[in-house]
Automatic annotation (TrEMBL):
UniProt similarity note: Belongs to the LipB family.
PROSITE patterns from the UniProt entry: BPL_LPL_CATALYTIC (PS51733), LIPB (PS01313)
Positions with a binding annotation for substrate: R81, G82, G83, L84, V85, T86, F87, H88, A147, L148, G149, G160, L161, A162
Species annotation: Onychostoma macrolepis
GO biological process, one term: protein lipoylation
Record-given protein name: Octanoyl-[acyl-carrier-protein]:protein N-octanoyltransferase LIPT2, mitochondrial
Enzyme Commission number, as recorded: 2.3.1.181
GO molecular function: lipoyl(octanoyl) transferase activity
CDD domains referenced in this protein's UniProt entry, alphabetically: LipB
Annotated catalytic residues: C178 (acyl-thioester intermediate)
Pathway in which this enzyme or protein is active: Protein modification; protein lipoylation via endogenous pathway; protein N(6)-(lipoyl)lysine from octanoyl-[acyl-carrier-protein]: step 1/2
Length: 220
């Protein structure tokens, strides 16, 4: 018996504040959880205005650190995703999959691994050899090229991944990205030695996603 491929709708949000993108995610999550709704699985693609975000951690992020980061000209948000502190900003392709894992596989561990494999496959399309490590995300050597942090409630996913394309990497100098000491960050542009805007990365990411998740894409 042939299993039908799940359909995933791609929504381009453009450059958008983190707060606004969070509201869009919440609307899609609510539709999934509403039993009377037939909300589609969705990939929200965007770039953010400069913002530092903090995921779930054992100890609260110090208020003085929050004020220091805000003074740099960035927003700051505490979120319910996994992971620690990271940066989002222009030149970074952010992908928020809002998926019902019942349409794929009801396993959060499987889902996280598939996201990582999607980014690794996308990097290979650029000729970049990327990999996973004991730390989350996707790496080129000891430098993280894509951060990953998700939330999953009742098998509905939110948050997602942030791929550095031609990001101003100096924003990361103000934090210990994802709380990992002794490792750095990189970007498609840095690895390839040329400017790689987010628009160049989008089709390769979507192609890798359809291959890895065995789905078909529709476009809003």
């Amino acid at each position: 018996m042939t299993v039908a491929r799940a359909a995933v709708n791609v929504v381009r949000l453009g450059r958008i504040s983190y707060r606004s993108a969070l509201k869009v995610q919440q609307q899609h999550i609510k539709q999934h959880l509403d039993s009377s709704s037939t909300s589609p699985n969705t990939l929200l693609l965007c770039e953010h205005e400069p913002v530092y975000t903090v995921g779930i951690r054992r100890a609260p992020y110090p208020p003085e650190e929050e004020q220091r980061l805000k003074a740099l000209g960035a927003d700051f948000f505490r979120t319910n995703r996994g992971g620690l502190v990271t940066f989002h900003g222009p030149g970074q392709l952010v992908c928020y999959p809002v998926l019902n894992l019942a349409c794929f596989k009801k396993s959060v561990r499987w889902y996280v691994c598939e996201l990582e494999r999607t980014v690794i496959k996308m990097c290979s399309k650029f000729g970049i050899e990327a990999s996973t490590s004991p730390d989350t995300g996707v790496w080129v050597g000891d430098n993280k090229i894509c951060a990953l942090g998700i939330h999953c409630g009742r098998y509905i996913t939110s948050h997602g991944l942030a791929l550095n394309c031609n990001t101003d990497m100096s924003w990361f100098d103000n934090i210990v990205p994802c709380g990992i000491v002794g490792k750095g960050v990189t970007s498609l542009s840095r690895e390839l030695g040329r400017d790689v805007p987010t628009e160049e990365a989008v089709p390769k990411l979507l192609e890798a996603f359809t291959e890895q998740f065995n789905c078909t894409l529709t476009y809003n």
